[in-house]
Amino acid sequence: MTAPNTSLFTCKILTGKSEMRNNMRQDSVKMHKLLIELVLLGVISSSNGAIQRPDYDDTPNPEFLNLAWMASIPDDRLLSEITMPGTHNTMALYGGVYAECQTWSLASQLRAGVRFLDIRVRHVNGNLTIHHGVSYQRAHFGDVLEGVTDFLQEYPTETVLMRLKEEFSETGDIYGAVVDYINRYSHWDLLWHSRLVPTMSEARGKIIILQNFNGPDLGMRYDSMDIADDWKVPTLAHVQEKWQSVYNHLEAAPSGNKAQIFLTYSSGAGVFAHPRAVAQLINPQLYEYLRAKTDLNQRFGIICMDFPAAPIIQMIIDFQLKEAFKTEQV
């Protein structure tokens, strides 16, 4: 029986490891070159200079406002049949490029027409501070509740949907603290207290908690929606995979269950793709996609973005306004 050639086997292993290292180095070089090219072309920004485009805005204030756009929606329209703009990590304004997802304040977002908020709270000894991962966002849940309550009292024709989840803590028990904050900073009767999708008439002037945590019902359950949130974008070379996920879900929404809310996140991030860079590449594609659909009056549900601009918010709102106007004419 011939003894195995251990030296040859060892050589093959070393050769394989060497090839793997070379491939990793080549991939790293390719990604570095891609990032440089995108910066030089102006596709993504490497400076602190603010950008205001029709699809993307990281300036401090929106170009124009949409204060009470829901006023024209028929009262008997289910909320699940409405197309509306939202923001991902709504309060993530601080912490550097990997933590920041917005530049407008909560008040500015609401006044610009945003009606879906993505709120993340850290729970410590009954306190609920706003976080994006490790980054504290210089606010607590009471600030959010006060801001939304003030807005709804000024514009009672509107409604605000609020996804609420625990972040950067793992207590798994924020229900009691959430109820305490609601009683201290808002009004219990300002909430929609049902798992059912409300009509526009039932929703006006109310906060609809989309409950992404355990405990008795405070509103609707977040997981009851049809959600596309493929947020992992390892590098900018993976942006097209992210866009394909967004595209597929938006294409499914018009023919989907009209009694179920559709929620599509266009946001994404990764180690080599921070939220700003991804948004600067995804938002233009989203803008062009929606512009091509403007005459079709389709239901897309909630479109949730990083760094949205006033024109793309207006475009999303216009789908609903056209449909409402069409209904009134009939």
Structural class: alpha/beta
The low-pLDDT segments are 8-14, 27-33, 39-43
How far apart are the first and last residues' alpha carbons, in Å? 90 Å
Mean pLDDT, to the nearest integer, reads 89
- The tally of helices reads 8
The H-and-E topology, N to C, reads as HEHEEEHEHHEEEHEHEH
Q: Helix share of residues?
A: 25-40%
User: Main β-sheet: number of strands, strand sense, barrel status?
Assistant: 10 strands, mixed
Number of strands: 10
Shape: globular
Q: Quote the beta fraction.
A: 15-25%
What gyration radius follows from the Cα positions, in whole Å?
A: 23 Å
Protein name: Phosphatidylinositol-specific phospholipase C X domain-containing protein
Organism: Astatotilapia calliptera (Eastern happy)
GO molecular function: phosphoric diester hydrolase activity
Pfam families: PI-PLC-X
Structural write-up:
This protein is α/β, with parallel strands linked by helices and 330 residues long. The protein contains eight helices and ten strands. The protein has helices spanning 6-41, 106-112, 141-154, 175-185, 200-203, 239-252, 275-292, 310-329; strands at residues 84-87, 116-124, 127-132, 135-140, 160-166, 207-211, 220-221, 226-228, 262-265, 302-305. Strands 1, 2, 3, 4, 5, 6, 7, 8, 9 and 10 form a ten-stranded mixed β-sheet that branches. Helix 2 (106-112) runs parallel beside helix 3. The longest helix has 36 residues, at 6-41.
